[in-house]
Amino acid sequence: MPEPADLLVLDASEVATCAGPAPRRGAALADAGIVRRGAVAVREGKVLAVGPSDDLAARFRASETIDARGRLVTPGLVDAHTHAVFAGSREDEFELRALGTPYMEIAKKGGGILSSVRAFRAASEESLATSLRSRLDAFLRAGTTTVEVKSGYGLDAASELRALAVVRDVARSHPIDVVPTFMGAHEVPPEYAGRRGDYVKLVADEMVPAVQRAGTAEFCDVFCEKGVFDVAETRTILESARRHGLGLKVHAEEFECLGGAALAAELGAASADHLGAIDERGIAALAASKTIAVMLPGTAFFLDLPKWAPARRMIDAGVAVAVATDFNPGSCFTESLPMILTLAVVKLKMRPSEALVAATANAACAIGREAEVGSLEPGKKADLVVWDVPNHKYLPYHFGAPRAAVVVKAGSVVHSSETA
Fold first, then answer.
1. What is the mean pLDDT of residues 58-87?
2. Phi, psi of 83, rounded to the nearest 5 degrees
3. 3-class SS letters over 198-249
4. CB-based contact 337:374 (threshold 8 Å)
5. Which of 152, 175, 232, 247 is deepest in the core (most CB within 10 A)?
6. Region for residue 343 given its phi and psi (left: phi exceeds 0; alpha: psi -120 to 50; beta: otherwise)
7. What's the mean per-residue pLDDT of the chain?
8. DSSP summary character for residue 328
9. Where in the chain is the domain with CATH 3.20.20.140?
10. Which pTM does this prediction carry?
11. Cβ contacts of residue 73 below 8 Å, gap of 6+?
């Protein structure tokens, strides 16, 4: 007698389960758990079984089926680094960079993050919520089912709390799972120009406790970079965050190597992100830790940076790596993780299977969701994508085109490009 299921996804050319212990390191990163002519059974929003299509078709009877014939099925993608709650846009800066003005020079003249701070502070909560909801829709259409969202464009206590409240409220009614991160230490606001130490004290002593009381963030992130926050200042803020029960993240070694990655490893941070300028000391520290190295190749591409994260060196050293979009209005304006997979293969020299695991199982580890999402295994959330491509190598190969045919979140179809 067949077992009951709510949903069967049948006859996929490949099911890339990304199953197994996470995070993956070294050679294990390339194992995407491929099941050829595979299927997935779902019940009550969870994965019930994964295996050969003929076996699952005989074993289960479902009220709904999806014909994935000739197509790839993967876990829903996990975007472990975004700045998706903001106001306005910065296409003028995009043009300036094309004409040769460096990003940091634009920032020193009042552009960059501070431009977005001005726009954010002037925006209504309604407009912020509407724009965030639209962006989450775009993530979903691109195959992302779990996304981290940082604050960081308010840079005062009231504005940062407002940003996190908007994230919380939008997340309650959107299919995507949202992981909120407080990033009051994204930049020094104009009113604290020349008084960076005072602002660090404000973030550590007032903002972090306020965020903890509000219960609107799971992590605290700091931009550890020359001209922003140094290692000692980053430590002060993160130690406060840890005392107040927040997980830790670090923007580290994006432009110059200050030692942020080693600090992240020392403090047991969930992730160290960017890493374009990481040195051997930082690589060794990450390899010896549980901290995930989240690489953001879209940012290096969009800013036309000379340095890209040394993915192969990190993988060979045993670092647990992930990839993410860094979606934000200034330095990487894309919600497309599939495009990031292409950049990971072309510029970071990762295998397609490594890039896929880095955007699913390992990315889930970077935001504390590895027990729930990131792979197709019995008991995990039934978050999956049916891609209109024949196999996992084809996914980054055919870049820049929408290919998520069906997106399933917790067992329910939440996006479909299928026509009747």
1. 97
2. -125, 60
3. HHHHHHHHHHHHHHHHHCCCCEEEEEECCCCECHHHHHHHHHHHHHCCCEEE
4. no
5. 152
6. alpha
7. 96
8. B
9. 78-366
10. 0.97
11. 9, 12, 14, 15, 16, 38, 40, 376, 384, 385, 386, 387
Long-range contacts, stretch 96-101, CB < 8 angstroms, 24+ apart: 97/303, 97/304
The class of domain 78-366 in CATH terms is alpha beta
Q: How far apart are CA 358 and CA 372, in angstroms?
A: 16
Tokens of 417: 């490009």
Q: Name the CATH superfamily, with its identifier, for domain 3-75+375-416.
A: Urease, subunit C, domain 1 (2.30.40.10)
The amino acid that residue 109 corresponds to is K
Closest residue by Cα to residue 8 from 65, 84, 73, 88: 65
CA distance 310 to 308: 6
Instruction: Map residue 150 onto helix, strand or coil.
Output: strand
Beta strands in 275-379 (DSSP E): 292-295, 321-323
Task: Please state the length of the chain.
Answer: 420
- Closest alpha carbon to 228 in 264, 192, 269, 177: 192
Tokens standing for 196? 């960076």
